[in-house]
Amino acid sequence: MITAAEITGMYGIIPTPALPGADRLDARNTVDVEETARLVDRLVRDGASGIIAMGTTGECPTLSEDDFDVVVDTVVEAVAGRVPTFVGATGAGGHGTARRLRKVAASGATGALLGLPMWQPLTTDMAVDYYSQASEAFPDLALMVYANARAFRYTFPVEFWQGVSAEAPTVTSAKVSRAPHLERMLEVTGEQINFVPSDMVVHDFAARAPKTTTACWATAAGMGPEPSIALMDALTRGDAEAADKAAAGIAWANEPLAHLFADQEVFALYNTQIEKARIAAAGYCRPGPVRSPYHHLPQEYAAASAACGERWRELRARLAAAGTNDQK
Fold it and tell me: How far is it, in rounded angstroms, from Cα 150 to Cα 328?
């Protein structure tokens, strides 16, 4: 099983490419299998250290069980063991989640990205027990906690991490966005859990916890992974100047969406739509339509997403040109 220390580099979080008509409520067989496999293979070839599938951007909650199975098989087969692969398995309740975890475990994936059931909020005792039971039921599957407070209506306090580290030994990582109590979280878990931040905040995490900040995740990888890889590589080398430059480039590309990222209420309503819109504009892959009922996006947000995608494409071109010049 992959350990916390073995989770390193940039983990690309992918959309789940959809076929035309996937935005209809009665759509079936919505997965663009060919594009999903092509995207995963391209990310690995372009330097992603790991793949995370079926998070929010991957539309995990809106996929039918048939489509879920197709995505699991397609992603794991496309990765072909070249990099660690975590597949989202969150369901509406415990039994539905267990069904998905069985599929992920049987597929040969490295682990599962696992959030909390999405109907009734959980107390800390419930949440710790949930991961404890998942760890006991699937002892050979590494679990990455999907610590999204907004989506799961739970704050993931320090007491939760202390309980999980004691009662769920297969939890070796967590996908986090903000961690105001990071230092305490590391203290109570004994560094058993790798708290993996996004490429937008990894610079801050590295300043606060340089020894344990070994990886980042990026939904932006669906627009092309090079800027996020450059930032993580610079932090790993301890090259402060290069890290500052890489972080500034990412911030510049994301600037058209900065006001939406900052407004947690608005972003929660349009998270998937914004991600797929900017990914489509960047041209690295074809994400296809957003699955029902989340396919609505106000025009002003769509325009901001497109501007972000275009800037990301320009940033990638700059990095490519700089790399070519370095080789001369």
Answer: 48
Largest CA distance in the chain: 59
Instruction: Provide the token pair at 167.
Output: 């009662």
DSSP state of 5: G
pLDDT of residue 179: 87
Instruction: Classify residue 18 by burial, with Cβ atoms within 10 Å: 0-12, 13-18, 19+.
Output: buried
Rounded Cα–Cα distance for residues 189 and 162 (Å): 6
Mean pLDDT of 165-191: 94
| 172: number of Cβ within 10 Å | 23
Measured CA to CA, the distance from residue 238 to residue 240 in angstroms comes to 6
Q: Is the separation of the CB atoms in 16 and 58 below 8 Å? A: yes
DSSP code at position 31: B
Q: What is the pLDDT of residues 270-326, one digit of tens each?
A: 999 999 999 999 999 999 999 999 999 999 999 999 999 999 999 999 999 987 555
H helix intervals, 255-298: 258-262, 264-282
Residues 65 and 31: beta-carbon distance below 8 Å = no
Virtual CA dihedral for 172, 175, 219, 20, nearest 10 degrees?
90
Write out the DSSP string of 199-228: TTTHHHHHHH-TTT--EEEEGGGGG-SHHH
- pLDDT value, residue 97: 96
What distance in Å separates the CA atoms of residue 82 and residue 76, rounded to the nearest whole number?
10
